[in-house]
Design a protein that fits this description.
By secondary structure, the chain is α/β, with parallel strands linked by helices. The strands form 6 sheets. A 6-stranded parallel beta sheet has the order 2-9-1-10-11-12, with helices on both faces. The protein has a 6-stranded mixed beta sheet with strand order 15-13-16-18-26-25. Strands 19, 20, 21, 22, 23 and 24 form a 6-stranded mixed beta sheet that branches. The protein is globular and about 65 Å long.
Amino acid sequence: MSRCIMVQGTMSGAGKSLLCAALCRILRQDGYRVAPFKSQNMALNSGVTRDALEMGRAQIVQAEAAGVEPDVRMNPILLKPSSDTGSQVIVNGIARAQMSAQEYFACKTQLIPEVLAAYRSLADEYDVIVIEGAGSCAEINLRSGDIVNMGLAELVDAPVLLTGDIDRGGVFAQLYGTVALLPPEERARIRGLVINKFRGDVGLLTPGLRRIEALTGKPVLGVVPYLRVDVDDEDSLAPRLDSRRGGGAVDVAVLRLPHMSNFTDFAPLESHPQLRVRYVERAHVLGTPDLVLLPGTKSTTADLLWLRQNGLETLVQRLASAGTPVLGICGGYQMLGETLLDPDGTEGALPRLRGMGLLPCVTTFEAHKTLTRVRATVANGALSGTTFEGYEIHTGVTQVRGAAFCRLEDGRAEGCCAGSVWGTYLHGLFDSGEMTDRLTAWLCARKGIAVDAEPTEDRQVYRQRQYDLLADGVRAALDMDAVYRILEGA
């Protein structure tokens, strides 16, 4: 029979996703067949499985750490926020409805049979299921009908590790308050506490560790240091977006859209030593970058209006007219066109919206969502001949009058280019390394500087090494003997 262990948190951002990824890797290293599971994820950072279904990026990362193919059963419900109070609801990889928060809260328990079917199907195939909770498990206003924290733990009889984030301060209050707010039967499910993201001398924590154990009646199973590993973040609220990445001479500006999605497209660029990637959301800090990137977004029209209102659109148009390269991905590509048409109100109340006018194309939104994984070769422009793999997640069909950006394996044209302005629907285009290196070499040549870097490592190889580093750090910090006893039901 499959066993399980669940990681819940005192808050969002406590490190649950990475701790689960680490446990997946450790268990795999120790010879177990392990799969991740999160019944309900809320994130704009998603991916496409080999069978063309959509799931949250965090569970894709955890599956990769476990050495298994990502599978939508690992994330049966994905909520993709489209506003402050509404989300697209994706069930088993397929978009099912657009709902307000109240509508979803009222009906989410109806999804329990599908959640349990996904979980039990995985349990039939794997030795251990590592389950991730969401946010705080002590949100007393959300406990009724909970299907992702203690409610799920009860449904699948999961023992729980509770983790708190010491980096933001108040970790003892986090842990004590969370345990104290839970009813006795849920409190009993917590088998151990984990303090996450610690910097400093762990010996100085010892008095506090003993005191929190006495107050909660729960053992502290480890103090995990602030690990400097490069593993994809779950969403765009991650700290990385508040600062520049890299110290290279080539300046790359990513427009930080309000509904930005799949920002991990740019992680390979952030790692390149000759690039300096910064995320920009105010016009006065854009300056004169060597490359402007428009990322994907869950709300293309709303984010285009945001760019228009805060002055960034005008600055990008000026940069493009002066020859600065501009690349738009997915929603960013749609914005670069001449017109956005929305006859059915898929994106909102505007049936027609002027685009940025930098590419000769027109996009019409529709309810159908395109989900696919492809191989492609850049067909035109400075990067012509570069091959890469990518995936599509978008609504809308774009009619192109000009040159294609690339050609797919089956010969179909994809994307659009006009001079040094490029648009494509393909996420993940920099993951292979070839695109990153070709782009960097071209930008360096334009800037008159030498290319001085080793070839970029394939992203999958790089990720696997990062998962090992993550596992090593967590294994050294956690009492793994105690974790295994919890798994065995002791």
